[in-house]
Structure formats: C-alpha cells, structure tokens
Design goal:
Layout (H helix, E strand, L loop, with lengths): L2 H26 L4 H18 L1 H5 L10 H10 L6 H23 L4 H21 L32 H30 L5 H15 L11 H9 L6 H17 L8 H13 L4 H10 L1 H16 L2 H21 L3 E7 L5 E3 L6 E2 L4 E6 L8 H22 L6 E5 L8 H16 L3 E5 L3 H9 L11 E2 L2 H14 L2
Length: about 475
C-alpha cells in the first residue's frame, strides 16, 4: 500500500469515526432529565437488591439483574440466610446511613460521611478476624492474589471464523455501553450542575476498552455503583479518580492479603448507602404535577430498568420522549388572545382574566414552527377557531368578525408546506370577506415568505411588527372609511 493510499485510508477512517461520534452524541441527547430521574431510581433499586446476596449471606444467588428474578432468588434460598451476617450487615448499614444523614444536616461535618465507608471496612474486618474461630457463618472475601493482570495484546487476532461475530458483538456492546455510561454520567452531572459531552465520553469509553483488551480486562463502561460511592464520598473533580486508581494499584501490588477477613456484607452496605440517596421521589412528583408525558418517560425508564434491562428501559423512555416531541410538532398549541385593559399587551384569554376580546378581531397565536407535519392540523384548527368565534359572536350579540390576526412571534421556522398553508388560508378567508394579518414573523420566516412572493398578496396592511400595532392601524383604517 502506497503512502497516498494509507493517508486516504486514515482520512476515511477519521471521517467515519467523526460521523459515528456525532450520530451517537445526537442519539444520547434524547436522554431527557425525566428519563435520567427514572433511570437513576431504577438503577439504584436494582443495585441495592443485588446487595441482598451479601446482606443476607446467600451463597447461591441469581446472576440476573431484573427485579422479579432477584426477589425470587432471595426467597427461594431462605435456608441460606445467616442471622450473623444479617446482624453485622444491617448494623453497619445503620451506621453508614446515620453518618450520611449527619453530613447532610451539617455540611461542616462532611468528613463523617466520607470516612464512614473506610471505617466500616476496617472495623468489620477486625470484628470478623476476632470472631473467626467462633463463627464461620459470615462470608468473607478470602484469598486474593497480588499483582496486575497479565498482558493479553499477544492474544489479539484479526482473522479467523469468529472475526465477523466479534465485530458485530463489539458494535452492539459499544453502543449499549456508551448509552449506559452517558446515562450514568448525566445522572451525576445533573446532581452537580455540570455538562457531559457525549462525543468525549464515547472516545474515553472506547480508549478505555482498547487499553483493557490489552491487559485481560472485561468490557466495561461507567459504573453506577462505584460512581455513587465516589459521589457520596464528596469527590468534586477527576483527581479523585487518579487517587483512587493509585490506591487500587498499591492495593493490588502490596495490600491484598489484608482484605482476607473483610466480610462481603460490608461491601453491600456501602453500595446501598451510596445509591439509596439517588432515588429522587420529589423530582418524580414534580414531573407528575408539571408534565404528564415527562412523568410517563420517567416511569417507563424506571420500570423498564427494574423489570427488563438497563438498555431496553432507556430505549423505551427514549421512544416516549421522541413521541412527546412528535406530538408537540404535529399538534402545536394555538391560543386565542385578548387585550389587557389599559395596556397595549395581548395575552391568552384562558390564562389571563384581565384579557378581553377585541371587537371585530380574532387574534390567534401559534406556538410552534410550521412544518409539513402540522400544516394540515393548523389549517383545520384555525378554521375551527373562526367558527367558534362566529358562534360566540352570535350568542352574545356582538359585532361581526372582520379580521383574523396570526401572532407568529413563536413561529421560529417555516417550510414550503407552511408557506402553502398561509397562502391557502388567506384565499379561504378572503372568500368569506375576512382579512388575514400576520404579526411579528421572525427573520427566517419573513425571509422565506418574501422569497416565495407570498407577502405580495398581503399588501401594506397585511404585515405588522406587533399585534397592538395591527389592531390600532386596521381599526383606524376602518374608521376612516365612509
């Protein structure tokens, strides 16, 4: 292969990688705050339930992560429950939760919560060591070999019958790992008010797994339980990861024998303490009060993670979020507006009691871009507003309707179908002796209306900067006519 061919191959690979990064980053953007609230709670419950194996002293436990298999496994192996393990586990769990509560109530005592996990490990290890001759019912970590994983770069193979399967599995695993890792990252980003870049996360997870594949490591992504422990300990920056990795390296090389008598139950208690605070029921209640569709996305994420799996739970929540977007696009909100007495302000009649109708005018606000997906609906909705207004006028013996004003302040974009809607609407209203007026179309909308020559049919009295200006000018024009 020549130099030019190699440069062309590298350029092609870089371009394709950039496209894939941007596409996955775009997909990740559909993980809304509501989705993350549900994911966070569901993952916290699942991780907590997994710790029941250690807290109850169960030996034979399910490898599945879903709620029903875990609960079934807990009660199926009741004969394996160990009261010694339960006493130790729940005692330290109460200690850890109490220390966390103290730190939350008194921020100056943050060190109490930060030091509690390490203190628990030391105390529980000493306790089990002292009782080792009297009780063998408490499961311990046991012997752990010292040293690092052996290198595995020499085992990598890029040929053979399994290569296609490895590529397919790698792509699927990579997408799922990225989705779950971003969900975890954005969960903690929301708690600490910082931003997560999906493209950078993809690069980090990819490079991490590439390095891991050369040192006998499992495929991995952002860990929910370990991130929760890190967050609960008060970590603020990525320096905590450097210190943690250094401590792990020193431990692997020199300190592994010290953990022989560390009970498994204490690890479960630490993880439960870390993740239990991530169940934000107040946020879910606010979603229910404010936006039912957001609450539905939250619930789908929660129950999907709890009963199916993390990827499918997030996938269902994303589908609900996309459905919400499509619903807003295809069924945009339209309002009938009135004048607030004594001012030049026009607001929704249904929201402001002070607002009242302007005689002979029907003022409608469209709160969405006008696209092919909603143009037909908008036309039908506007005509229905006109019929309802005429019925209201007849019922209240008011004057005749003469002018329909469309407030386009919130119409941020328009396509050719939207332009056709404006044209057809003007023609239909003109046949019924109504005048159609556009108020405050934004720059991009105004530009497209001008390029399509739609504005030519509106004349001098068809476009205004504000609704108030349109009402005042047209009313003055009517008064000046004989």
């Amino acid at each position: 292969m020549g130099k030019f061919d190699r440069e062309k191959l590298v350029a092609t690979w870089s371009t394709e990688s950039l496209i894939l990064q941007n596409w996955l980053g775009f997909v990740i953007d559909f993980l809304s705050k509501a989705t993350l609230v549900g994911f966070m709670a569901g993952a916290a419950v699942i991780v907590s339930l997994q710790q029941l194996k250690g807290l109850l002293g169960i030996v034979h436990f399910t490898t599945k992560m879903q709620f029903i298999p875990v609960i079934s496994s807990v009660f199926k192996h009741r004969d394996e429950w160990s009261w010694q393990t339960i006493v130790v586990g729940f005692s330290f769990l109460v200690f850890l939760l109490t220390s966390r509560h103290i730190s939350m109530k008194r921020p100056k005592l943050f060190w109490v919560s930060a030091a509690a996990p390490l203190t628990s490990v030391i105390l529980s290890t000493l306790l089990v060591f002292c009782l080792k001759l009297k009780s063998h019912k408490i499961s311990v970590i046991g012997y752990l070999p010292k040293g690092l994983n052996p290198p595995s770069a020499n085992m990598l193979s890029f040929s053979g019958p399994d290569l296609a399967l490895a590529i397919k599995t790698g792509i699927v695993t990579g997408i799922l790992s990225l989705t779950e890792g971003i969900a975890v990252g954005r969960t903690f980003a929301a708690l600490k008010n910082y931003q997560v870049d999906g493209n950078k996360e993809m690069m980090a997870i990819g490079l991490m797994n590439m390095a891991g594949s050369c040192s006998s490591c499992y495929v991995t992504t952002g860990s929910f339980s370990r991130s929760a422990v890190n967050y609960n300990a008060g970590a603020q920056t990525a320096v905590s990861n450097i210190i943690m990795s250094t401590a792990v390296l020193v431990t692997l090389l020199f300190l592994m024998p010290l953990f022989y008598y560390t009970p498994n139950v204490i690890l479960g208690a630490i993880i439960i303490t870390a993740v239990i605070g991530l169940i934000d029921y107040q946020a879910a209640y606010r979603l229910w009060k404010v936006d039912k569709l957001d609450f539905l996305a939250c619930a789908c994420s929660f129950f999907g993670v709890l009963f199916i799996s993390v990827p499918l739970g997030l996938g269902i929540a994303v589908v609900v979020s996309v459905f919400k977007i499509l619903l807003h696009v295809t069924r945009p909100n339209t309002l009938i507006m009135g004048n607030i007495r004594g001012t030049n302000t026009y607001q929704c009649l249904g929201r402001y009691k002070e607002a009242s109708r302007v005689p002979s005018f029907l003022i409608l606000a469209i709160e969405s871009p006008i696209y092919f997906a909603n143009s037909t609906y908008l036309q039908e909705r506007i005509l229905r507003w006109i019929r309802e207004e005429e019925d209201w006028i007849k019922a209240n013996n008011e004057g005749t309707l003469k002018c329909v004003i469309l407030d386009m302040t919130a119409v941020t974009a328009i396509d050719t179908s939207g332009i056709d809607l404006v044209r057809e609407l003007r023609k239909m209203l003109e046949k019924r002796s109504f005048q159609l007026v556009l108020a405050n179309p934004v720059g991009s909308v105004m530009e497209k209306l001008h390029q399509s020559k739609t504005l030519d049919s509106f004349g001098l009295n068809g476009i205004y900067l504000t609704v108030g200006e349109a009402v005042a000018d047209i009313s003055a024009l009517w008064k000046s006519q004989p």
